[in-house]
Amino acid sequence: MTKSNNTPHGFKKINEDKLAVLCDKCNDPIKKVSMESIKETRTNNPRMYFPKYCKECKNEDPYTKKTCFDGAKKISYPPEKHMGSRNKHRRRTYTAYDECKECEGKGRIWVSRSHAKGGSYYKQCEKCQKRYSSHPLRKAKRETEKDLLEKITEKYNSILHTKLSNKGYDPSNKKQIDNNYEEIKEEIGGPLYEKMQEKKEEARKRIQEHFEEATKLFEEHKDRAIIHAKRPKNHFDIIDKPSFEYEQNIPENTEQTKLI
């Protein structure tokens, strides 16, 4: 978890040291947690490590949590009580498209199995999941994020090696680094790692903002054919903003639309 003055998604600030975990559905507080426990998750999404629903909402009927720009629905189902399920104590969200004939718009498919093989269970509809993940906008987002985060990591490693060398350490000498680990962590590695995590969080935020802009553009033009999405430009400078590019071939002579 990186340093931030903002309260993480799914939490409500109680005071400087305490946060309340909120139910995904009714938004009521579930439990109190310390800021320290949030930081210990060291992730951009600490919400995944805490309960998602209050007792009342946990067992409610299926409901649509979200409808995406391309018509995909995120449907939340209550805990599955049958023998083969891995989700007996938690709700699970499935991705669905209304027109899918495989799952009939439910997002999940029943898999029959004997008790000897572990019992029957539900699984995510592969056709819906493939359609969801292969959308050009989502592919562009994944590629941009992967490239940008790798570049930030490379920059972090380069600075770390330089700082170690300036302090008289040999970055290639593992034994020397291990023997002085605590000192290196406190003086060099720790502060630099926190800075890297902050840069990654900033990058993810920018990418998400531009992805949301791109989805609005898609919704505006979805009645006209959008032929393809071009591979995004790779913005390796972490100060630059990532962008997504699209070409529209219908109607004719439409200028290329570009998000910058």
Overview of this protein structure:
The protein is built from six helices and eleven strands. It is an alpha+beta fold and 260 residues long. A three-stranded antiparallel beta sheet has the order 1-2-3. A three-stranded antiparallel beta sheet has the order 4-5-6. A three-stranded antiparallel beta sheet has the order 9-10-11, covered by helices on one side. Strand 4 (63-67) and strand 5 form a beta hairpin. Helix 4 packs antiparallel against helix 6 (181-221). The protein is globular.
Q: Could you give the topology of this structure?
A:
Elements: E1 11-13, E2 18-22, E3 29-34, H1 35-40, H2 55-58, E4 63-67, E5 73-77, E6 92-96, E7 108-111, E8 121-124, H3 126-133, H4 136-166, H5 174-179, H6 181-221, E9 228-230, E10 245-247, E11 257-258
Per DSSP, what share of the residues sits in E-state strands of 2 or more residues?
A: 15-25%
Shape: globular
Rg, nearest Å: 23 Å
Helix content: 25-40%
Helical segment tally? 6
Average pLDDT for all residues: 76
Distance between the termini: 28 Å
Strand order of the largest sheet: 1-2-3
Number of domains: 3
User: How does the helix and strand content classify structurally?
Assistant: alpha+beta
Instruction: Count all strands and give the number.
Output: 11
Q: Summarize the biggest pleated sheet.
A: 3 strands, antiparallel
N-to-C series of helices and strands: EEEHHEEEEEHHHHEEE
- Low-pLDDT ranges: 225-260
